[in-house]
């Protein structure tokens, strides 16, 4: 890992704005990247790049240091400095982000220089209205995933996907269509990149994000133990305390923090149902994908 990149705020997305519509609706939320990074730490995953909020002076800090390709995308709108950058989704001025005058609130994310290998997520969505993916209509879809070499066992990769599904459910991210691992490292952990489609609607819990969990009904024992410690309102208190030190605090609204606690409860209820139908010796796994046998579970 070496340098940093700047992920900018999208104009008009205030902290308390509710993103309605499809579960992956809306543009990325820069504050979501910050909250996601700290949540990953709290859950013991540590698979999300470091993210921290910053106030940037576009005129003094960015424009003098911008590459020519980036510089040519800057423009003025209503006396505010704006730019749209060079990327697949950058569609010109209509997709531009604007500061207030020359100041912009954004998120700085640690850039990972190691080459990545990209994989299609088994539980990815179709992103086509009225067209469902196979996992949405097949309750035994996990059986088919377990036939794929990289997920057999169940292997570490599938347990990583289930950890990520729980993480995404908590933050409300239904946009995990691909995932990355470190290239040339076949046993690499799954890296939780691109968490901007998060914390959009505190009133809605998108249960379909949990499909890998409730269809496979397996989880790392360590993940379960951490969730058990964070239930009953503990998660929101811990995360709120940590986020209070970020330069652009408050990062999340009270409603989003409460939603996290509500979703932890739903994850635990899902696991209770899995244990009821399969027995805990088939639900709980060690880090290497081996069963842990019977464990004492506090009510």
Automatic annotation (TrEMBL):
Cellular component GO terms held in the UniProt record: Golgi apparatus
Entry annotated with the keyword Nucleotide-binding: yes
Molecular functions per Gene Ontology: ATP binding; metal ion binding; phosphotransferase activity, alcohol group as acceptor
UniProt keyword terms in alphabetical order: ATP-binding, Disulfide bond, Glycoprotein, Golgi apparatus, Manganese, Metal-binding, Nucleotide-binding, Transferase
Domain (FAM20 C-terminal): residue spans on this chain: 74-283
Primary location recorded for the protein, binned into one broad class: Golgi
Regions crossing the membrane: none
Binding-site residues, Mn(2+): 28, 194
Protein family per UniProt: Belongs to the FAM20 family.
Listed name of the protein: FAM20B
Organism expressing this protein natively: Acanthosepion pharaonis
């Amino acid at each position: 890992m070496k340098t940093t990149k700047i992920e900018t705020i999208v104009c008009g997305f205030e902290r308390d704005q509710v993103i309605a519509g499809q579960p992956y609706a809306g543009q990325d939320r820069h504050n979501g990247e910050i909250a996601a990074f700290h949540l990953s730490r709290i859950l013991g995953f540590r698979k999300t790049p470091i993210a921290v909020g910053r106030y940037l002076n576009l005129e003094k800090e960015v424009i003098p240091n911008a590459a020519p390709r980036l510089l040519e995308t800057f423009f003025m709108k209503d006396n505010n400095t704006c730019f749209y950058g060079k990327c697949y989704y950058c569609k010109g001025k209509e997709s531009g982000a604007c500061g207030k005058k020359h100041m912009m609130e954004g998120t700085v994310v640690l850039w990972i220089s190691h080459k990545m290998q990209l994989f299609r997520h088994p539980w990815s969505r179709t992103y086509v209205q009225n067209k469902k993916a196979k996992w949405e209509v097949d309750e035994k879809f996990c059986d088919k995933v377990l036939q794929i070499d990289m997920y057999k066992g169940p292997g570490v990769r599938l347990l990583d996907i289930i950890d990520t599904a729980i993480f995404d459910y908590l933050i409300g991210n239904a946009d995990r269509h691909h995932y990355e691992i470190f290239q040339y490292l076949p046993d690499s952990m799954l890296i939780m990149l691109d968490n901007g489609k998060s914390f959009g609607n505190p009133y809605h819990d998108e249960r379909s994000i949990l499909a890998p969990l409730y269809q496979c009904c397996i989880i790392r024992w360590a993940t379960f133990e951490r969730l058990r410690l964070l239930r009953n309102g503990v998660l929101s208190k811990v995360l709120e305390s940590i986020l209070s030190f970020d330069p652009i605090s408050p990062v999340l609204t009270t409603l989003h923090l409460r939603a996290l606690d509500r979703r932890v409860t739903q994850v635990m209820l899902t696991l209770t149902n899995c244990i009821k139908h399969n027995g805990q010796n088939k639900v709980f796994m060690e880090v290497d994908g081996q069963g842990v046998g019977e464990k004492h579970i506090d009510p």
